[in-house]
Amino acid sequence: MNIQPATQKEPLITVKSGIYTAVVGALGAILTLFAIPLAPNVALNLYVFPGILVGGTSGVLLGALAGFIGSLYTPILWGWFGAIPYNTFLGAATGFFSKYLGLRPTIGVFLGHIIYLPVLYWTNVLILGLPSEIFWTVGMFSTAAQILVSAVIAEILMNIPAIKKRLPKTDLHAPGWVARSKLLRHPWLKTT
User: 15-179 has which CATH code?
Assistant: First the structure.
């Protein structure tokens, strides 16, 4: 009887990735306090940053967890409870599109936002009664601005060698059309 030893599978969450997720998620809760005014009643808030950074570096589950943690203070400060599921989804979407399609976190988070738009519209316009014009102009302008700024900061940090070597690694997979495009591919994707 020939018995092969069981192969050791790496855990879904390691100590390093768990601490990283918790710290970056807490940073998102802190960033909620520092809104940058863009126009009257419109502010740029970077609470979406943790989900984008962790999702882009560590995958779906940890991206969702960082997004969740990063948005926990938003309902207390701004009164919008929809920030928690929205930010959790953005972190998961960034992780999914980065890990399984090899897309840049900036592209992944915008795809996640587009997928989540019907839910945002339904909750804000149909349930809360926000005028549709305000939702599409002011709301989407400020949301797109926060996503773009947060994603660009995340990608800049991911490209700093001293930071990159300390972040948890994830396996990235990409179809050929993504791997060949410098504009689309994740900065950590190895090209051959």
Answer: 1.10.1760.20
Phi, psi angles (nearest 5°) of residue 181: -100, 115
Asked if 84 contacts 65 with a C-beta cutoff of 8 angstroms, the reply is no
Q: What distance lies between CA 170 and its chain's CA centroid?
A: 15
Q: How much is the pTM?
A: 0.88
pLDDT in tens, 61-106: 999 999 999 999 888 887 778 889 999 999 999 999 999 999 999 9
Listed residue (57, 1, 65) closest to 28, CA to CA: 65
Residue extents of the structural domains in the chain: 15-179
To 5 degrees, how large is the angle CA 159–CA 164–CA 167? 140
